Amino acid sequence: METQVASLAIKEANTHYPVHPLLKKRWSARAFSQEEISEDTLHTLIEAAAWSASSMNEQPWRYLYTTRRNPELFEAFHSCLMAGNQPWAKDADVLLLSLAEKNHQKTGQPNAYALHDVGAANTSLLLQAASMDIYGHMMGGFDRAKTSSLLQIPDHLEIVCFIALGYLASPDSLEEPFRGRELNARTRKPLSEILYKDSLDLGLE
């Protein structure tokens, strides 16, 4: 428990400006406990995602999930992950597949903002989770072809990412190098590298 508390303190964002505590609390954990996420709780997280902003109110986000209570399907989800994610993602209570509708439902034309909107929905989901002491880890390391085939993803949906969800456990439950990563402080680029006033001074000729 002491190590778990230590990881919470280490991972809290050290911001220069007073951002909301929930934003400082959210981080991509890898150490998950055996505590179950109830169906009502999971629906709460998806409800939070559903109220995100989207271009033309298309709401292109779709989610497919499984839990450890369904070992066969959970293993199917888990087998789609790359080797760097499998050792710790196996302990998540929920594995969630984030998907995007490729085309506008109203016109059938490609939706250029679908991935942006699904990313915003995923952030809302993870912030709601953090408010309930649930931690999520988005993963881009997966076999896209295998995921599409094994989980029978229809052509009109684009695979965005996997998300592991669970309650926090001590980093001591992890093997290296994952334990060390769980105990390293988070960092971000300074605002001077991402914020420009009046013009984009990118140093380009």
Automatic annotation (TrEMBL):
Domain named Nitroreductase is located at: 23-167
The UniProt record lists the keyword Oxidoreductase: yes
Sorted alphabetically, the keyword list is: Oxidoreductase
One Pfam match, by short name? Nitroreductase
Domain of life of the source: Bacteria
| PANTHER family registered for this protein in UniProt | NAD(P)H NITROREDUCTASE YDGI-RELATED (PTHR43673), NADH DEHYDROGENASE_NAD(P)H NITROREDUCTASE XCC3605-RELATED (PTHR43673:SF10)
In the record, the note on similarity to other proteins reads: Belongs to the nitroreductase family.
What is this protein called in UniProt? Nitroreductase family protein
